Amino acid sequence: MGLSHLDMAIVAGYGVTLIGLAWLLSREKKGHDKDAKDYFLASKALPWWAVGASLIASNISAEQIIGMSGSGYVVGLAIASYEWMAAATLLIVGKYFLPVFLKRGIYTMPQFLEQRFDTRVKTLMSIFWLMLYTFVNLTAILWLGATAINGLSGFDITYAIIGLAAFAVVYSIYGGLKAVALTDIVQVVLLVAGGALITWIALDRVAGGGGPVEGFQVLLDQAPQKFDMILSPDNPEFKNLPGIAVLVGGMWMMNLSYWGFNQYIIQRALAAKSVDEAQKGVLFAAFLKMLMPLIIVIPGIAAYVLAQDPASGVSVDRPDQAYSSLMGLTPEGIRGLIFAGLLAAIVSSLGSMMNSISTIFTMDIYRPLMHRNASEKRLVTVGRIAGLFAIVIAVVVAQPLLGNFPQAFQFIQEFTGFFTPGICAIFILGVFWKGATANGALLAAIATFALSWAGKIYLPEMPFMDRVLYVFLACCGIMLLAGLLERKPQAKAIALGDISFRTGLGYNAGAAVVLAMLAAVYTVFW
Asked: Which CATH number fits the domain that encloses residue 81?
């Protein structure tokens, strides 16, 4: 197994093309210096296709391709709930939250919290997001991406981490969000094409050359337990995906926090030309989300079946090696294309994450607390330095932090779940309840970690997703109690009467199709 000269040429061609395209698209007109709006929000001019493609390219990275394939190997199709329920969540975000955020004209989610509550809430959440993005998300993307490169080519993991980081810096650090978002359509095409190829090849191998349809039937016959969407309590993975509670409980909190209140994701929609363009982009992303399990989770299940047969050529020592082991089955040339698709997913997410870190640090920490009168040029420079500093930290801590986790995807979800409940409570009540106060939001932000940690220690058998729901309800109760005790008008409350939540016929029809697809999936694989 390894990359041939043809494979290397394809990968090199992809890298050169991407860097050249990113620099070309991010150039400013002669006489115009890149300002904060250009760098952090792509001049607020992104069309719907760029918004949708960038949402998916930023989301689908090594933690999904490698991590979720690994979870597919262990858990099966049930792990796809993260993807399919995200499609429904995107529809909610597009209809009920984007109009509010875009009306406020914000750069960052902490900025919204300051507008709605106060500086204390904004600063606390800014620090949290900076820590999460740097020490969890960036490190996970680097580690899992390097693991895949090592599994395919034998390239040393440490050098792979450094190489991925350097590639992402060259690709994104100059142009900012515009460079990332406008090239993400290329990234998504490569991602989907590469993923579809490996799914086809894996299913064909499972069927002994009989094609992907027959291969899928073989998976159903040989591993029927891997196709239960709703896990029973006796399933060893019930603790991670607690049965029906996935549909009606904490999964909603996980997805709303990620897709609705997460700077790393929502920044693309904040950069849209208009609310209508942002909503079209979100709908486009929802359709792409329905496709993702076919090219991420199914390969993991195929690897599980193939690994049972020593003659298949597939050997998996740990779940997160499932995807890279399948890449070893691909022929010369095709392997280079799939490898380029994997790199596309990794560097797009790295670039997006770096830009979100630089945006929050510059607009919510540096400018208000250190240099309120900083020039536009200085803000852009500080943003670039912040992004570079974050990726250097991630390179240093990636292997020590994640090297001992067999399922990195589940580690990321559980760690994030410590903070998700409070984030959801703060944003949902902050938007839709005028009585929500800054003190209540601050208490919820503190309580979400304290209660989650207490639940982890004293109720270790409770599925973490159930814990997320209960802590969310507790944080809502804390905010409601604080608001009722203070009993004073909130001058910063959202005036919902000034915001239109109506969506067009196209959005409504598309949403109906997505929901019908979801109903069909859960009906067939219940």
From this structure: 1.20.1730.10
